[in-house]
Amino acid sequence: MAEAPALDMAGIGKRFPGVVALDDVHLRLAPGKVHALMGENGAGKSTLIKILAGVYRPDTGTIRIAGEQVTLQSPRDALARGIKVVFQEIALIEEFTVAENVFLGEYPVGGAGSIRWDRIRADAAALFDRIGFGVDPAARVRDLPMSQQQMVEIARALAHDARIVVMDEPTSSLTPAEVEQLFAVIRRLTSLGIAVLYVSHKLDEIFAIADTVTVLRDGRHISTRPRSEHSEDSLIHDMIGRRIEALYPRTRGPATDRDILRVENLSAPSGLKNISFHARAGEVVGFFGLMGAGRTELAKAIVGFDPLRAGRITVDGRPLAPHDTATGVALGIGLLTEDRKREGLMLDLPVVQNATLAALGKWARGPFVDFAAERRATQDYVDRFNIRTPSLDQPVRLLSGGNQQKVLIARWLMRGLKVIVVDEPTRGIDVGAKSEIFALIDELAGAGLAVVMMTSEMSELLGLSDRIMVMAGGRITAEFPVATATQEAILNAAIV
Amino acid sequence: MPPSSDMATRPSALGRLFRRNETALALCLLLLIAVFGVLSDSFLTTRNMTNVLGQAALPLIAATGLALVVIAGEIDVSIGSLFGAVALPLIVVMNVTGSFALGSAAALVFAFAVGAVNGWLVAYVRLNSLIVTLGMLFVLRGLIYLYTGQRAIPDDAMLETFYQIGNGRFLRTLPYPALIAAAVLAVFLWILRYRRFGRQIIAVGGSPEVARLAGYDVARVKFATFVIAALLTAIAGIIMASRQGSAVHVTGIGFEFQVVAAVVLGGVSLAGGIGSLWGVALGVLILAFLANGLGQLNLPTEWQLVITGIIIIAAVTLDESRRRKR
Asked: What distance in Å separates residue B24's CA from the closest CA in chain A?
């Protein structure tokens, strides 16, 4: 090839305490092409992007931009070298106008160093004209919908003369019409010779926009092929691999017939629309959906964390008070949150206090807590779940993700639950510990709990569930018994 | 994008004017002046009006500095003690050298050091700014007491310029402190609008992550706001010493909260990133006219405190509910 690749990453490795996030990954972007980066959660996509953005530094490997080897010291440095990453979390100053955000950090100034607002407005308007982008440069970012905020970020990339634009799940909060608009902008970028790295796990988008596809799995490079050589099956195969059976040993028996959780016609301000389902004792009901489908919202609504607009939830026939976690817990429903660090753990408190938080009354002796009994109970779970911690007094912050998750599961089991809602149970947990969490979830169902599992990982869904519900846009769009579910059917229902 | 959606997200110019916090505050101020004008004969006189402006000048100078700190996402409550403390180097150096310029320089150097310590601890050591500046508030007050032995130190130099700066009036009407405050306000209004540093302050308070991604040195910006706040407080403190003709050990006790109240009343968000100096100026004026008007009506100062407190809470409640409606 005559032309040097816009970006050439080779042998990239990155480890975090306890986790190998990337291992010998390579990626090569051609100018004027759209390169898709795919993989399940935890595959290493985000780590790779953050390296490109200058947020993380790789432990090993080299990065070349247009043939020249570089080290990306900081986000500023990456930007200066022509790499613009548009993260899902929009990075704009909400109080500023669109035009000012476009020129953030590089204001045009006059002779005395004063900011030239007239030029900011005019240049922004001219730029928007050029990329066919109909937003008022004088509008405040705070007043814009998400889709337009994203466009502002892309416009900013162009204002900074970016040669490489990385988009992280750019369509997660866009309507189909807005997605079309985004694609038009992407085509405009490539026609200007800009290399686009498009990170997504939505197959239809990949087939619509990408020229080349690279798949990562468990931090490793699996394949890089032209899109034309891929079918949906081959992509899914690359993303998931053949490891489902090995990872998910099923020890529990079949589910019982006894309904424990019933959810009827649930709607909520968070975007849930008319959701009804039930879960039986000993059953794992898996909810699949893409980003923004409403999985976490549903999890939070059923346990009473979020308010409802309409609908009824019963546990063992007894209704839950809406928007009230206390009665939920009292009736035996608990949430294993996707955001362990913020909503699950008290990071600086020891294992024992984290484990016994929901069930402290059990060890009450009058107005006091019987600490010895509390510790004995915790020790039981530490042994049973194989929680690796030097002592019960270790702050949970210092435990690995998998062990933290086990502490949280222990917390709910001590409380004596009937229904446990688990949201992305293996997020941020490395492969080895994942199988232990799967075994625990299997065990929970085996012990007669109804398990409602929210996941965006196909393998987890197929490996653990008895029944699969698919969500899109806040609704349930399909239901399959696991035996008849196929990845294609599930994805089709999720993309609706 | 159809033009209709643009229309929906953009209110008319008039609508925007009325939605602005500053408009509401200005109306509030006019209403206040009208009410007191009706209730009291002595309120709407030139003498009284210019007096109020003179009284508002000191909190306004300090509030301009504090507003920068708050917009950058931090707080500085040490200004109360600093306001009083700068009188010591000022008066002592003036008494020895007989020079107002040297005295002021000493006061400003002292304030710079205090602001730099505050800013360093908050921006670089990353300590909580409320705690750091609360500590500084105590430290400075303690040092004032130790140095003065809890007595006022009189100004023996008796310089005319020093007297005029706090007590003189331009054309015998407008107090110099009001002119100084207006100049400070104008300079910082300009900086916040037209200098990169000003935009950096707002960006840092709005989102430190975004500011860092844009290449701004977040720590340096925060550090600078603490130094500026201290220097402006020193200017206010120098004027105060001129009025008192001495360094008084109890000067500035509670001043910090008067200033914080004005800043908050002016619509500056304690979470950072939101606020305008016009609002802050109106906040200061509202509190000054309120205190003066209630005084003219011979309401005891105890009631002035109660009413001022209620107005601050009401203003913040209104502002917050408006913000949530969006």
From this structure: 19
